[in-house]
């Protein structure tokens, strides 16, 4: 027996589990019960004669056999979906692209790229969703998304260790900045020395995956004073505008500053660069995927405001 003896339903369920990293999350996405998902996975494991998932306290992880089956499953399901579209008479349309993006990319970059794409290729449909880097990488591997925008900081490691590696393209590389209230004493100079950041009140929060503290300047040492915590970037920036603290700002948020916020360059310490990456699976992308990729490239090019270093009361740059 082999994967060819499994049902397409079972293969789709397996792909969703691989993409979401847990049986319960896959069940919620598919509208199944968790026991129903478990039965489909068990049937697929019997068909291929191998254990595909390792159950862990924080979800599931693919075994070596699971990674092999996933690669075949993605090919099979893509082909089945293509046949379905052709039979439905949809082959002549511009195509659909599934895009994943990290949280702050949704403030400016993603809407701008979709505006560009709509003007240049109105026949291309984009379905998008936000997620943390681990979730987006799993989605790429499982074939549930076609392109992913990822944020990366030093030392700029690959987002996963799977083989073959994902295709990564650096769309931009720009420094992290600090947002302060427009009336703050540090705001006048347009830049700040890293030593002046010590002792400030910070507005921070955990990353989407709970991996690290976001919003505090890296490497300050000691215990930073956390005045407020929030995961949502707009909430952080509104708190800054209200004079309640300061926060770091990733390059993707630089053009989304509310009134009353000033962005500052940080000098005197290691340059905290952040890369914007476009990631996809190996292989030739579809025409629609490449069109969206080009729109993302255009949207990611730093604007004149974003590189000039000037900030107004209602507009900000990064």
Task: Describe the protein's topology.
Elements: H1 8-20, H2 23-30, H3 34-48, E1 53-56, E2 59-62, H4 64-87, E3 96-101, H5 109-120, E4 125-130, H6 133-142, E5 147-152, E6 167-175, E7 177-181, E8 191-193, E9 201-206, E10 213-214, E11 225-229, H7 233-241, E12 247-249, E13 261-267, E14 273-280, H8 287-300, H9 304-308
Parallel strand pairs: 3-4, 3-5, 8-13, 9-11
Antiparallel strand pairs: 1-2, 5-14, 6-14, 7-12, 7-13, 9-10
Helix pairs in contact: 1-2, 1-3, 1-4, 1-6, 2-3, 5-8
Give an overview of the whole structure.
- Helix 5 links the parallel strand 3 and strand 4 (about 125-130).
- The chain has helices at about 10-20, 25-30, 35-50, 65-85, 110-120, 135-140, 235-240, 285-300, 305-310; strands spanning about 55, 60, 95-100, 125-130, 145-150, 165-175, 175-180, 190-195, 200-205, 215, 225-230, 245-250, 260-265, 275-280.
- The chain has three domains: about 5-85, Orthogonal Bundle (Arc Repressor Mutant, subunit A), CATH 1.10.10.10; about 95-170 and about 275-305, 3-Layer(aba) Sandwich (D-Maltodextrin-Binding Protein, domain 2); about 175-275, 3-Layer(aba) Sandwich (D-Maltodextrin-Binding Protein, domain 2).
- The chain is elongated, with a radius of gyration of 22 Å.
- It is built from nine helices and 14 strands.
- It has about 325 residues and is an alpha/beta fold.
